[in-house]
Design goal:
elongated; 2 strands; transmembrane; mainly alpha; ABCG_dom; single chain; 361 residues; 63% helix; P-loop_NTPase; ABC-2 type transporter domain-containing protein; two-stranded antiparallel ribbon; 14 helices
Amino acid sequence: MDEISTGLDSSTTYQIVTYMKQMVHIMDMTMIVSLLQPSPETFELFDDIILLSEGQIVYQGPRVYVLEFFENVGFKCPERKGVADFLQEVTSRKDQEQYWFKKDEPYRFISAPEFAHLFSRSLLGEALSHDLESNYEKTSVHPAALVKEKYGISNFDLLRVNLAREWLLMKRNAFLYIFKTFQITVMSIFAFTVFFRTTMKSGQLKDGGKYMGALFFSLLTVMFNGAAELALTVMRLPVFFKQRDSLFYPAWAFALPIWLLKIPISVVESCIWILMTYYTIGFAPSVSRFFKQLLAYICVHQMALCLFRFLASLGRIQVVASALGTFTLLLVFVFGGFIVAKGEKLNQIRLIIGDIYASCC
């Protein structure tokens, strides 16, 4: 615990440390707490002291022996001086001289490395070194203290916790999903007014291109309504990599809840589009084809969400991910155009070759 007393008064800090001491002794656990200038009452609650200065361990051992160590070196804490304040000042070049009590010897400044060297030669330092050099006996350790699994909880709990977190993030970004629903509603109104069946001629084979245009526009709108996943995923990647490397959860526990909770959004947005455009544009009136198109749009929307999440994971930063998204958009426009029959393709190729030859001649 790092500087838990910051912003707290001494009484509150004392109560917190008292509770932690009781918990440590009752539950047989270990706590390491860093404090700056604790009160004498709070200092007395600790069992062991680790004094750090300039990256060196000046003292590490029982609290009751810390003053004895510095007295052996030549420094003594005054009676009305707090031990914690003394320990912070005794290693300082500016404040160290006032605590020198060996009047028969001239004072000289003792640096932190020298303190660390003197501590390593003391009885406490030698005992500590001996404990650290001894082999670790796993047989003498309680079985519950050994790590047997990679993650701290079961796979079901990992999935449940990540589902709860994803649901919380979606509620925080509720405005985004409401705006996307409003956006696709407005676009569906534009679509069925442009391709309104009462004003669009039909009955001939060449009129099918208008319906294909309506389908193409619908698929693009539904697909790229999920482009917001690109930025959302890029923002979450640093946290994901940090928590994954710390073995909080595997990658599947992070990705699966995102996919599951986006399915209802795909269903809602696809239903809005189909309900407002299918019969107004004048597609096949069969109910089975209505639901087939609904299923196709739901799958396309899910594919788009997964595609943009994949591009964000591939790019990892906003600029690269946006470039990949734009390139993918161009590919979709190029290869997702109107379907042309094989025979018509050959005729079009002949016409293009003829035009090129005529222009060259």
